[in-house]
Amino acid sequence: MIHDPYPKLKIVQISPNQKPFKNVIDISGQTSFRESLRFVEQAQAVITTEGALMHSAAAYAIPCIVIVSSCMSPNVTAYPEQTRLFYDKELECSECGFFAECPNNNICMTGISPERVFETFCKVKNKIQ
C-alpha cells in the first residue's frame, strides 16, 4: 500500500522469519544489529514493533509507528513522540504477558489491519514532508 502513493520511497524490511512484502528491499538476516541501526538512522520513518528498532528510532529522533501488542500495559511502550497502534477492541486477555506462543493466536497483533498501519503512516509522512 505504501509503494503506490510513494513510488520513490525506498522501503527496507528487516524482519527475520517474516514473508517479504512486495516492492520492498528485504535485508532480513543479512545485517548485523549495528547495521540495522544505521538503516534506522537514515530512515525518514520507521514502522516496527516494541523493541530495539523502536528505541533506536527514538534515539535518532526518527518518526516511528510502533505496533504494540496488548500483552503489555500501554503505559510502558513506546516514547511520547512515537505513534502507537494497539488493537482497538476490548480483549479479556489484555496485559497477559505472552510475548510468544500466545494461546489466543496473537489477535492483539493480527487484529491491527494493514490499512490502519497505512493510514497512520500517511499521517506521519505528511508531517515530515
Could you write a compact summary of the structure shown?
The protein has 129 residues and is an alpha/beta fold. It is built from 4 helices and 5 strands. The strands form 2 sheets. It has a 3-stranded parallel sheet with strand order 3-4-5, sandwiched between helices. It has a two-stranded parallel ribbon with strand order 1-2.
Which features characterize this protein?
three-stranded parallel sheet, 129 residues, alpha/beta, two-stranded parallel sheet
Shape: globular
What structural class do helix, strand and pairing data support? alpha/beta
Sheet with the most strands, sense and barrel status = 3 strands, parallel
From N to C, what is the helix and strand string?
EEHEHEEHH
Count of helices? Answer: 4
Strand tally is 5
| Percent in strands | 5-15%
Instruction: Name the poorly predicted regions.
Output: none
Q: What helical percentage do the residues reach?
A: 25-40%
Kindly provide the radius of gyration, computed on alpha-carbon positions and rounded to a whole number of angstroms. Answer: 15 Å
Explain what the structure shows.
Helices cover 29% and strands 12% of the residues. It is α/β, with parallel strands linked by helices and 129 residues long. The longest helix has 15 residues, at 114-128. It is globular, with a radius of gyration of 15 Å. The model has no long low-confidence stretch (mean pLDDT 85).
What is the topology?
Layout lengths: L11 E2 L11 E2 L6 H10 L3 E4 L2 H8 L4 E4 L15 E3 L21 H4 L3 H15 L1
Parallel strand pairs: 1-2, 3-4, 4-5
